From TrEMBL:
Residues 48-93 form the Phosphoribosylaminoimidazole carboxylase C-terminal domain. GO terms for cellular component: cytosol. InterPro entries: ATP-grasp_carboxylate-amine, PurK_C, Rudment_hybrid_motif. GO terms for molecular function: ATP binding. Keywords: ATP-binding, Nucleotide-binding. This is Phosphoribosylaminoimidazole carboxylase C-terminal domain-containing protein. The keyword Nucleotide-binding applies. Pfam families: ATP-grasp, PurK_C. It comes from Rhodoplanes roseus. Residues 2-27 form the ATP-grasp fold ATP-dependent carboxylate-amine ligase-type domain.
């Protein structure tokens, strides 16, 4: 007999930048793998720096969204609390070297 308390197969949040900087994100490839589809290219088309939005930093989302090459992702949490991760921004730049 096998008892399972919880299974949470998911991608890791440190790879959120792949949504904005790669041809096929880790999220899309996760679903492709589950669905039995061929995996997409993980080639990076941009350099990326991802920064978490903690607590009240998320209130500046409109200014961040107005920055060139800045992608804003809010996690949909209703209550802002100190220290709570509310979203992230990914700033993109042209590649400085060829992707691996």
């Amino acid at each position: 007999m096998l008892l399972v308390n919880e299974i949470a197969p998911r991608v890791h949040n440190s790879g959120h930048w792949t949504r904005d900087a790669c041809v096929c994100s880790q999220f899309e490839n996760h679903i492709r793998a589950i669905a039995g589809w061929p995996l997409g290219s993980v080639s990076r088309h941009s350099d990326a720096v991802m920064t978490n939005l903690i607590g009240e930093e998320a209130e500046d989302w409109q200014a961040l969204a107005g920055e060139n090459n800045c992608c804003v992702t809010l996690y949909g949490k209703r209550e802002i609390r100190p220290g709570r991760k509310m979203g992230h921004v990914t700033r993109l730049q042209p590649l400085t070297k060829a992707p691996c």
